[in-house]
Amino acid sequence: MTLLQLTFGAVFIGIGATAVMDLWLVFLKRMGMPSMNFALVGRWVGHLMRGRLAHAAIGKAEPISGELALGWFTHYAIGIAFAALLLAIQGASWALNPTPLPAVAVGVCTVLAPLCIMQPAMGAGFASTKTPTPLRNCLRSLANHTIFGVGLYLSAFFLSGL
Asked: Where are the transmembrane segments (predicted)?
């Protein structure tokens, strides 16, 4: 595989996996479960670009112009980066003949990003410890990222058939 093919693979797999996760989040929302507000992700990224990493409560931070679009862009860019990580770990040959275990394992490991970086920086504490239901929030994040891992596999499987 050429670098261009690997890049295309990472973009396609990352977008596909993130879309699978988003479909899962829509399903949860229709079942009455709260979902991530990507405007707050955009707000956090907007403040990060201005030099501020951590907030006591991102919801109370000054809004950023275009924060919803920035949040969605960031969400998909992170999905692409995690797909690139999967391809870097597994190699190009995995994308040609994908198997579920590496994809799901990477998906599960990606839960470390929100638990250890984003939640503390957005004011929710390490692993949601500053929220009323930290265990439930952590389990929900783990489930979401496991679904993302399934999406990594499904997207790679679809791409391998093209």
From this structure: 6-28, 68-89, 101-121, 142-160
